[in-house]
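Lab notebook, bench 4. The sequencing result for the construct came back, and we need a structural model before the next group meeting so we can plan mutations. Quick request posted to the team channel:

Model the 3D structure of this chain.
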Amino acid sequence: MSTGTTKAPALPNAPVEYDRQFMDQVLNIIRLYFQQLDNAGPSAASTQRARVESLNRDIVISAMNFSTVDQSSPVKPRVVSLPTQLDYSNLRVGDVYYDTTANNVLKIKV
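Done. Here's the predicted structure in token form:
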């Protein structure tokens, strides 16, 4: 799955007659494009077990997120793009976020 940065390739115009070298080049372009789509890139995953007293059972909460490159930094570090409690009002029920006031605990908006 692409992180949204993969661009569709510009394919060359076909020659009038069949040309094996042309076809090999086109197939290589398409192969590279699909490899980019298949490469998820850097990602972060987290799992948390929590007791839900109202349900009288434990639940497992899993989250997967792709990081982005901080283009404003000269060293281009990866930045995890999970929202924080500051984004709470913009989150949908069920969205996962970091609560930075509680040592970066993952929480789910209910």
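The longest strand covers residues 57-69.
Will bring this to the meeting.
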